[in-house]
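Q: What would this complex look like in 3D?
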Amino acid sequence: MRLKKHTLVLFGILVLALSGLSLSCAKREEPALIVYTYDSFVAEWGAGPKIAPLFEKATGIKVEFVAKGDGGQLLSALILEKDAPRADIALGLDDNLAEKALSAGILEPYAAKALEGIPAELRFDPSNRLLPFDFGHFAIIWDSEKLASPPKGLEDLASPAFAKKLILMDPRTSTPGLGFLAWTKAVYGANWKEYWARLRPSVLAMTPGWDTGYGLFTAGEAPLVLSYATSPAYHKEYDKTERYKALSFAEGHVRQIEAAGIVKGARHRKNAEKFLEFLLSAEAQAEIPLTQWMLPANPAAPLPESYSAALRPGSTLAVDRAGLFEDAAAAAQILAGK
Amino acid sequence: MSRAGGERASVRTSSEAGVSPARGLATRQGVGLGGPLALGFLVLVAAAPLAAALFRAASSEGGLSRALSQALADPATFAALAFGLKEAAASALLALLIGLPGAWLVARHDFPGKRLLKALAGVPFCVPPILVVLAFVLYFGRNGYANRLLMALFGLKEPPLGFLYSFWGLVFVHGFYNFPVVLQSVGDAWASIPRDREEAARTLGAGRLRSFAVGLLPSLLPSIVQSSALVFLFCFFSFVVVLVFGPLGGSTLEVEVYRAARMNADQAGAAALALVETVAALGVVLLLGLAERRQVAAARRSGAAQATGRARGAALVVLCLYALFLLLFFAGPLLSLAAEAFTERRGMAGPGGFGLGNFARLFFGTGAAGASAGDLASLAAFGKGPLLGALGDTLGTAIPAALLATFAGGGAALLLRGRKGALVEAALSLPLAVSGVVLALGWSFLFPSAGRGLVILVEAVATLPFTARSVSAALASIDRSPVLAARTLGASRLRAAWDVELRSALPVLLTSGAFAFSMAAGDASAALLIGAPGFEPLPLLVYRLVGAYRFPEACAAGLVLALATGVIFFAKDREAFHA
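A: Here is my prediction, written as structure tokens for the whole assembly.
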């Protein structure tokens, strides 16, 4: 009977699949250090695969990176495992998520010696539960081949000359979007809503994340996009072009700081301390620019040549994060014309 | 998962629900514990993520009721609901308008490329939403092929087509993205409807239009309602497309759930919004269930099925026009995505030429996005890049997940066969009402620790309700008389089921397996949320590539993903063809 052979084969595959499943579920060797981070950190071209072997060479400790989606999902995962933490280190919580992370009580302080080499302005958490490892300023990127004269500041951006020329990210769903909102709040104070209403005609699209927005920009949909001041360095390094430029705005720029910390109840506390010291060392920090496309927190780390294309803003604006998440919904409503 | 294969799974039900002369003989099987157990199992599996989210909310301070009353008191919730209903209704209507002529063509005529046209329904699976957005942008965008052509032709300074970034642009993208669902579902139903009623009406003197309205439309209506309800749901749950192309600042419930969960770390609020969203979607799904039941009734009318013939005359003209239309509006964007994958340029918008550099970097892994194929030292580096590993990871999870889902789903369907009623209907429909963001939210609560095996399990669990659904629909139409004959001839019940039922169910099992494979292969969220170290299936690779400035390579990886799932669809279609 042909049918029997057929079913036998099918069942054979099923058995194979099940055994494969159980094999992959089987306990593996327990690593000496577990770092929870966001997804792009562990990608092949991310910082994780570069830093792990260096750390192992320096200390003999094998580190395991576990990707937990994006920054928000990383925080959720840490809060969920609060009572029985698997992670020793949380890496990639930025200053927007800091308040929630600190008040959730999921982190332990560690005053790393390496912090001495980090500029005071980056050390946003005086309790030393979140240690800054990289940072970047938000900036508008300009496609110099598509637009002759770029805007000079936020107010200029709202002028009719730039109608439908700007791609923003949604402050309700993305970090750069939230950063832009913080930027406008820092510059306009209580009048930020009026500014968003003036800005509305300039916005072509507001994308849910940085990836889609920057994709539209490089596809030539609009000559201006919200991104990081370091974005041009990528194009110089890999596309060998300087057509994309970060615009320096006279009123100053807002900064995003990414941090790492030791998880409360970490099972490998000593190794975690060694990792944080290493992460902030010039050796590990030198890997940051070409993997994270952010600036290393440690100024002793050398910058690659392509970073000459990155913008170093003259002044950094202080950000008041109170009510920022609520204002994101209001900002979207203004763009919707309500 | 949001776009996952409800469409495919349910779409098949119409074609599988053939005419069964022995239906009257069908006995109730699975009497006893089997049926309720299977039912409970299906409900549990479908509702688990939502239940996990709700449980999480209930154990938070203030509890679920406070979060729920907060969500219901917020006008933004209703604005998002209203906008979602509006865009989904408009999108479903457009998909229907585009799909119906195609359904008529495939039901009544034979022509080259017919199988390809029906297999198009696989496209939405294997192309991740962000690539769909880029596809339409590359083709219809301000700097897209269409606008550049028009500007060159008419010497224009500004791009003439600016509709993409508006409500109608959003509806346009949704409509063209989803019309194959309507085409396949209605086309299959149309092909199985006996022609005699329509002919009787004509004989009795009714005009062409009237005979269509009286003889055909009543039997066609269920599949029309069913497929447009499905498209409605997918558009209702759409996330990236709605935010990019929709009116500025527009919001849907899916966006609100995402915002509460990821940006605000407000798990109770997210769960409450997820509940509102699921209840709203369930309303639509019940409409769908109702339509499906009527469809089975429609399929029961026996008689000679539609005869197909070569398209000629007026039909040939319609066919050519339709082909041209699809080429311009549907194939165009997808082909520009493929073109992007084979283009090398300095900076994505810069001048470029044909090249295999994107694929070369994915295979050889030079690490540098700027390196071209010529820079590669030797073939020894083959496989150093992320692509082969990603393909392996995709096959290694999607195949076992599809097998598990097919066997478990088929088993549940077998236990449930012969059972009818609102409860069964609801159990089989519930999974359609749980959106992608809600699934991801629930999974992250259910499975916080990492593991490759867990990804397989989650993919299997997520696709299981869909396989159960399509196998169940197919079993309902299988001729039972050979089983009864075999039993009369002395075969044991198990033996009869084994030899006869499995044989008749094999094609649909293979079909469901193919659906499950595509759903599992195309889903990034499970791998993203509970991924294991070094585990990178293709959708995750695409996600990481677009997140790292590497859009052309993402297009190339997306193309490989589409081909991997597309091959299965073609194989599946051939199987169904021979069966």
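A: To summarize the key features: DSSP finds 14 helices and eleven strands in chain A. Chain A has a mean pLDDT of 89.
Q: Very helpful, thank you.
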